[in-house]
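Hey,
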Amino acid sequence: MAEKVILLVEDDPNDVLLTRRALAANQIANRVELARDGAEALVRLFGTGDWNDEPLRPVLILLDLKLPKMDGLEVLRQLRSDARTRRLPVVVLTSSREERDLERCYDLGANSYVVKPVDFSGFSEAVRQLGRYWLVLNESPPPLPGGP
């Protein structure tokens, strides 16, 4: 059975640290790979560019919207337009409460949209629930033809 890797796409070092601490506090021991911008996320997922590794196939992508180089909406658009990544679970984890962002994310195929709670306790609880659902309860779909 393949390792259940989480891809965290987040540019804010404080939010990276907060997410890692919340995962650890909730005994979610999955390996967390980090992409600090949208372009790096796509390079990691498609195995191109400087990484030139096997494409990363996370069991879950935690995607921020406000990212340098390429925003989360464009990342989501590209993931859903490619057979290799179309079915990867994407949870938008953002500070945006804008209805327009929410609608656009779901229109582009986000699996979930979670507004980051501001305090650690609330954030940790949100991460616990996300981890329980996406890493324990949810059955991941098989890859599409043309995927890995």
